[in-house]
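S1.2 Input.
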Amino acid sequence: MLNVRRSLLAVLSAWHGLAAFKNLCDLAAAFELAPGAARFGSKNFAAMEKLLAPLAPPRALLGLLLAGVVGIETAIALAFARRRVELGTALAVTLFGSFALIDEAMVDYRLDETHREILVFVLIAYLVVRET
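S1.3 Output.
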């Protein structure tokens, strides 16, 4: 039977899974492991390079950071797919909360707005799907 909770969990799982896939494609293209993957990429690697340019991090470190994001997004997608609402929400809040903090620290309010919107969406979704 179709219900709001299951539907929302499916959407959250698919959305985070798609984000992980797009970031993985972006990572593969950035390091020329699969140049054709660029057309499916998220453009987040370039955004990270631009955002963190004042700190001059090595490309390999940026790649490691984005790979970590892929891992967390995959874990979030799996948690929601398995109806582990608390785990999925905690991971998503931590990830997007961290992004918002980094955006604030680096004074990029365009990215900050996007990450705050996603954070609010995840929190509202939690209120809808949490077990009472």
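S1.4 Remarks. The CA atoms of residues 11 and 42 lie 19 Å apart.
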